[in-house]
Write a structure and sequence with these properties.
The structure holds two protein chains of two kinds.
Chain A lengths: L13 E5 L5 H12 L4 H11 L5 E8 L3 E11 L8 E9 L8 H15 L5 E3 L6 H9 L23
Helix pairs in contact in A: 1-2
Chain B lengths: L4 H14 L8 H8 L3 H13 L3 E4 L5 E4 L8 H8 L17 H23 L2 H26 L1
Helix pairs in contact in B: 1-2, 1-3, 1-4, 2-3, 4-5
The chains are: A alpha+beta, B mainly alpha.
Chain lengths: ~160, ~150
Amino acid sequence: MPEAVGTTELAGDLVIRAAAVADVPAVTRLDSRITGMTKPDYWADMFERYGKRPNRFFLIAEGEGAGVIGFIIGEVRAWEFGSPPSGWIFALGVDPTARLNKIGSRLFEAMCGRLAESGVDMVRTMLARDDELNMAFFRSQGMMGGPFIQLEMSLYGFAGGHG
Amino acid sequence: MRLQQATRCALFAVLELAQDPDRQISAPDIAEKYGISANHLAKVLRDLVRAGLVESMRGAGGGYRFSGNAKRVTLYEVVHMFEDIGSKPGGRPEGGDSSDIGRALGQVMNEIDETAVSTLKSITLATLLKLIHRNAAGQAGSRSKKDSVNA
């Protein structure tokens, strides 16, 4: 049964900080509640790749007495099909019961601040077209359609492909 | 992409009213501000009242007031009231649809439709109002830069 959205009001301060290895189990649990899939290896690998290196940011939202209630991950990418260095956000999660407390906005602002400090002046993301929740969130933060377009095709029939 | 006249009237009216939900504005005032037909707007406003997005205030100083939730209502909901945007495959078939060319063209048209629908669904009235304010602030900023260069 889906969790009731926005039922928790934060009692105290919200802290946005860099993730530590000790946060990985809590992030794994939170992601599992949001997506319905538990992926401990994936999140351990994400921390290794994005929690420890320059120009890569794995941030946590921690509520007073509530533990980890949100996360965001981003990095600086450069020269993909001619794109000058720009920030990329590719993961965002907020505890469904704690939504409507501006946790996503605080995480997004913190990420934009870190990306700007890294010297880029543009931030991008890519979402599923039908992901209305995240699409509306990023739009509400001021993001607009950009000059790049995502393309894909099935690899069915290629060597090594299934089928 | 061009929206139909009724849709444009509705978006102008809803967004004008949503900028200040406490303010009442008459239909002729909205029509004059945006250069749209007052008759057309009156019909559109009736539909918006029925949908619960605006309310009609009677009496002296009456007019219309925004009564929806700007953080929840998306552009798609307003547009969809007045035109069939992003019509799904399976609608009335047209000549050539089932040919190889027709099917391939249909795939491309569907991609465009789906992008348009998801864009409109992702933008709430509140988000569009923010964009309007950002644009205005940007214009004011570039004007003051120009003024200081010219000074």
